[in-house]
Specification:
Strand order of the largest sheet: 3-2-4-1-5-6
CATH architecture: 3-Layer(aba) Sandwich
Radius of gyration: 16 Å
Order of helices and strands: EHEHEHHEHEE
InterPro entries: His_Pase_superF_clade-1, His_PPase_superfam
Strand content: 15-25%
Distance between the termini: 23 Å
Number of helices: 5
Largest sheet: 6 strands, mixed
CATH topology: Rossmann fold
Protein name: Histidine phosphatase family protein
CATH class: Alpha Beta
Pfam family, one: His_Phos_1
CATH superfamily: Phosphoglycerate mutase-like
Structural class: alpha/beta
């Protein structure tokens, strides 16, 4: 069995990240990043911020890498959210007070993508902090309650390998 080597890269910094609000689907980068370089096959989430980060990589857009759908919270600052609704969302991975995708549904989507979308070889994928968090939980078989305990800064890289099971690789 040949292994899969997957590097997930978080998109570059956006204004939403700078000011503490949830991003819009067409959120552009605040500061364009230096071009990435790789010999791996490249994928990108469909949102503008991921595609801009992937410029120069000849990346294929993959819907499986799309960000969590935060429904009515898209574009809103955290401080404007109803505090009770936010606490429910932070404490219950199945909750959808925003009317979008739950953390549990995101996890299932990312886990299914990891387990079925990639052929053996080297892969680099530009995606979002929430997707990277879900991938880490899947690789570690960690509980969903751990989701909000992971910070993924702009341009962070997380490496995984798969040969029978997913493994998190530290560089």
């Amino acid at each position: 069995m040949k292994p899969i080597h997957l590097t997930l890269v978080c998109h570059a910094r956006t204004e939403a990240q700078r000011v503490g609000r949830f991003a819009l689907d067409d959120e552009p980068l605040r500061d364009p990043s230096a071009p990435l370089s790789t010999t791996a096959r490249c994928l990108s989430a469909p949102e503008l911020r991921a595609r801009q980060t992937a410029e120069g990589l000849s990346a294929t857009v993959d819907e499986g890498l799309r960000d969590c759908d935060l429904g009515e919270w898209k574009g809103l600052p955290l401080k404007q959210l109803d505090e009770n609704a936010l606490q429910v969302w932070l404490s219950d991975p199945h909750a959808t007070p925003h009317g979008g995708e739950s953390i549990a549904a995101l996890y299932e989507r990312v886990a299914n993508w990891m387990d079925s979308a990639l052929m053996p070889g080297q892969w680099l994928a530009i995606t979002h902090p929430f997707v990277i968090r879900a991938a880490m939980l899947h690789a570690l078989a960690a509980p969903l309650a751990s989701f909000h305990r992971i910070d993924v800064p702009p341009l962070a890289e997380v490496r995984f390998s798969h040969c029978g099971q997913w493994r998190l690789q530290l560089a």
